[in-house]
C-alpha cells in the first residue's frame, strides 16, 4: 500500500510564502501490510520524495480544482455545483486561481524546464476555464428561479475572471 503526504516550503526556510516562492515536497511511503489493518505501525518498505517548484504546485492546485468542479457536473444538485464554482471564481477568494494566474503566468520564464512547467500551468488554466464555463451552464439548466440573482453574480464573476486571465493565456 502506498501513502503520500505533502509539506510546503520555501527556499528561504519558511514553511509558507508568496506563490512565486512556494514549493512543495511530496513524500511517498510504501508499506508492507495492506490497509486497513489493526497494526499500530506498518513497516515502510520503500520511500521517496519529489519536490515541486512553484509552477508545478500551482498546476497541481488548478488541476485539483478542475477535477472537483468536473465531478460536481455529474450531480443534479445546484448546491454542489455552486459550492465548487464559488471556491473557483468568487472575487473574494484569496490566493485563488486568478491570483495564481496573475503571479505565475504574467511573465514567461527563460529556462527550458520552467517554460515547460509554465506551459503546463497555462494548459491547466485553459482546462479550468472550460470546466468553469460548463459548470455555469449546468447550474443555469438546473437552477430554480429563486436563485437567479445568485447565478447572475456567478456569471458576472466568471466574465471578470475570464477577462483578466485571457491575456495571460495568450502569452
Automatic annotation (TrEMBL):
Residues 1-171 form the DOCKER domain. GO terms for biological process: small GTPase-mediated signal transduction. Pfam families: DHR-2_Lobe_B, DHR-2_Lobe_C. InterPro entries: DOCK, DOCK_C_lobe_C, DOCKER_dom, DOCKER_Lobe_B, DOCKER_Lobe_C. One of its GO terms (molecular function) is guanyl-nucleotide exchange factor activity. Belongs to the DOCK family. This is DOCKER domain-containing protein. The lineage of its organism: Eukaryota, Metazoa, Chordata, Tunicata, Appendicularia.
